[in-house]
Amino acid sequence: MNDTLAPHNVEAEEAVLGSALIGGSHVLDELTWLKPSDFFIVKNGWIFEAILNLHRRKEAVDNLTVTDELRARGQLETVGGTAYIAYLMNITPTYIHAVTYARIVESDSRRRRMLSIASGLAQGAVTGDKEKIKELVQLAKSMLDTPDDGPEQLRQYLLHVGELDSLPEVTWLKPGIIPSKGLVMYYGPSGVGKSFLALDLAHDLAQAVPVVYIAAEGEYGLRLRSQAWRKHHQVDAKDLKLYFFANIVSLIDDKEREAFMKVVAPLKPALIIVDTVAHCMLPGNENDTRDMGLFVKGTKDMQKAFDCAALLVHHTNKGGKVERGNSSLRAACDVIARITGEDESIIFECQKTKDVAPFETRYLRLVKVQVDDQHDSRVVLPSEKVVQTKNDPLTRSQRIVLDLLKMPANQYGLTRAEIADQADMSNGQVGRVLSDLMGLGHVKQEERRGPYLAVTADTGVIEKKV
């Protein structure tokens, strides 16, 4: 067999050895089915054999004992000396995935043996040796049985408290906003700019990592939106690792999801954007606990298979304050951001993060970009917050709140929650509006936690400055 064509994975072999050196008996107890002959690189097989010998003798397994064992066997210098043993430990971030690494090594070994059997069958066909052919066919059938994927496979998820220290730290595609491995949700009402924001993120990250965007709705507007982003940011399409899947993918349907994953697997995506949840969980019901559970599981299975992040674009409910559907989706997410509109601004605010501080609220705006003589689109840009003075006209949101407070029925004032309910705004949005109105002298609060009262008349209406 040509060594350059023989199936093998050097990184997986090194990771198995590094895991055994770090984890010792914790790892080796779960790798009883792996053999030194399964390693393609000869020196790696020697090292694993030395490790197994120590384990069978119930001796400690670490860099010192393995080095001493190899020295006694006269193989230390041949494998690369103590430097190679140290290298194996340094390149292995954690041993908790040792079983997964070992499965790769064992699978490649089985494939090499199958190739050898295929070669023997071809030779038997030429010579007409029927007995040899029967023997090889029987051997091939026996090799199709894989090691038990039950308790041994699940062992990697059972950790002693001391093993937690070896887990890798959280890494980010977008610091504080998109973890490199996790489930993220952006939600907001229709027309607020969710897809523009998701597209901006996709284009930005695709300059460095592969991104797959499932455009399950509004796919016909993608061309202009992408052209507008590339024109404004002066980025050529060939410099972007961005791929659009312009159709619906039912992530609760195992066959459809697996077919989609096979299509995008060669891209090795670092981020998959699902736009929107409603379309990609059909024919499921958003409000059904079981259907939403299947959607979450399907999405996480996909995310874990690619070792990537998944971003879900979702709508708000009729009240416009929380996301639509069953609450199990919120519980499953690592990061949640709400997108709302306030006058001409888009407000991007953190609703949930795990293990890190929430990111600061961001103010954005949609800016027109002329794509060509006949077409234009919009791109998302940061919104410059201009200091408003008392001489400036009020914004639309400020006028709504002030008019509400000036109504005769509200002469004794309203709480922030009451204003939010009557004005159909979020509590956070009302808080920002009240803060601005108080700073301008239009609203007062006589005591802490007391009602807000109107104290002046407004002077007109203009669109909010950005």
Written description of the protein model:
The strands form 3 sheets. The chain has a 9-stranded mixed beta sheet, sandwiched between helices. A two-stranded antiparallel ribbon has the order 1-2. Strands 12-13 form a two-stranded antiparallel ribbon. It has 466 residues and is of the alpha/beta class. It has 3 domains: 10-163, DNAb Helicase, Chain A (Orthogonal Bundle); 172-382, Rossmann fold (3-Layer(aba) Sandwich), CATH 3.40.50; 396-454, Winged helix-like DNA-binding domain superfamily/Winged helix DNA-binding domain (Arc Repressor Mutant, subunit A), CATH 1.10.10. 43% of the residues lie in helices and 15% in strands. A hairpin with an 8-residue loop joins strand 9 and strand 10 (362-370). The longest helix is centred in the N-terminal third of the chain and has 30 residues, at 98-127. It contains 18 helices and 13 strands. Helix 3 crosses helix 4 and helix 16 (396-406) crosses helix 18.
Q: Total helix count?
A: 18
Oligomer: single chain
Number-wise, the strands total 13
Q: Could you say what the CATH architecture of the largest domain is?
A: 3-Layer(aba) Sandwich
**Strands ordered across the widest β-sheet:** 5-4-6-7-3-8-9-10-11
The tally of domains stands at 3
Indicate the radius of gyration in whole angstroms: 30 Å
The CATH H-level homologous superfamily of the largest domain? P-loop containing nucleotide triphosphate hydrolases
- Share in β-strands: 15-25%
What sort of overall outline do the alpha carbons produce when their principal axes are compared?
elongated
Q: Please give the alpha-carbon distance between the first and last residues.
A: 68 Å
**Main beta sheet, described?**
9 strands, mixed
CATH fold topology of the largest domain: Rossmann fold
Helix proportion range? 40-55%
